[in-house]
Amino acid sequence: MMLNKEQHKMKIYTRTGDAGMTGLFAGPRVSKDDLRIESFGTVDELNSVLGVARSHPIDADIADQLEQVQADLFTVGARLATTQPERLKIRLVGDADVQRLEDWIDAHEESLPALEHFILPGGSVAAASVHHARTVGRRAERLVVGLVAAYPNEGYEVVGIYLNRLSDYLFVLARAINHRGGVADSIWIGEPSSPSS
User: Fold this and answer.
1) CA distances from 189 to 92, 117, 118, 119, 195 (A)
2) 3-state DSSP assignment of residue 6
């Protein structure tokens, strides 16, 4: 049976969260400031920042990598949003996903000059967006570390490993985008010496 257009429509608002509660995927309702909500909300934020990065002119191979990462982050978010991943048959990020990030890191680093100083986030608009994504990824990782401590038997550790490696990848990727675009990294050389009095 085909649904007509009116039957198929779903309203975006439900009013069920107006009192500050929301539901985990096939799970209990919790406060919107619950650590699990904070975690997958931050992963969603990271995904959105990567969408901004992809909207800027970047090479096709980099755009493809970022699209894969965005798909991975939907998987991560779904995992963080449920307490029953096995029953719901939710795919989990794992060793193969982490290895893919490491392979990308190694490939990008082959073309980059050796890193001898701290660098300031920035450069091209695309690279600056990727640096921004990296910092959001680190925040997501910190929240997941809290989840591992709060729910030690829920298997969140692999999510933390993935996010850790993802931030490493995004740092290298921002440098690679600048390098390909002929934009030099801005080096941080520390605080200037105080003048003698």
Assistant:
1) 41, 7, 7, 9, 17
2) helix
Cβ-based burial of 173 (10 A; exposed 0-12, middle 13-18, buried ≥19): buried
Q: How do the domains of the chain map onto residue ranges?
A: 31-110+123-181
Q: Are 72 and 66 in contact (CB under 8 A)?
A: no
The first and second tokens of residue 188, run together, are 């941080």
Q: How far apart are the first and last CA of the chain?
A: 86
SS3 30: strand
Of 68, 50, 58, nearest in space to 104 by CA: 68
Domain 31-110+123-181 has CATH 1.20.1200.10: yes
Residues paired with residue 41 on neighbouring β-strands, in sequence order: none
- The pLDDT tens digits of the residues spanning 10-49 come to 665 555 544 465 555 555 655 556 788 788 889 999 999 9
Taking 3-state DSSP, the helix, strand and coil percentages for the chain, each rounded to the nearest 5, stand at: 55, 5, 35
Query: DSSP assignment, residue 154?
Result: S
* pTM score: 0.81
Helices 60-80 and 157-180, axial angle in degrees (round to 10): 160
Residues in the chain: 197
| Beta carbons within 8 Å of 57's beta carbon, 6+ residues apart | 126
